[in-house]
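Quick note —
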Amino acid sequence: MTESRNLLLQAERQCQQSGARFTPIRRRVLEMIADAPGGLKAYDLLDRLATEHASARPPTVYRALEFLIDQGLVHRIESLNAYVACPCPEHSHGFQLLICRVCGRVEELHLDEVNAQLSGCARQLGFRVERQTIELLGRCDACCATDD
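Predicted structure written out below.
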């Protein structure tokens, strides 16, 4: 079974357990994102979706993306304004993204101690963190190897 298929099955189970509606459009948007190695921008999603659903418009895609983010199934890559599938949506804590600036590969980390330390520092300064995005931009091993 492919990784993309596993993510879709996991998403279905998660939505069933939480009582959220995993509509065909939401499923298809997640599938497209999961199949894209470095994530997709909203308008790329719209272009792809429009070939299958003539009625697809920007609000359709943005509503699907909002749902998928709220369910923890997709992350927004702030620096690229793109979306990537979460490989472990059952992980409810913060995350960090490693983004290869050459090939676009995205890896997800879950360093809970980093999140806790940042939240603790913010609390000491009288600030409540509502959302945290940590993106590390660099080059993956494969792209570094091409320099040799």
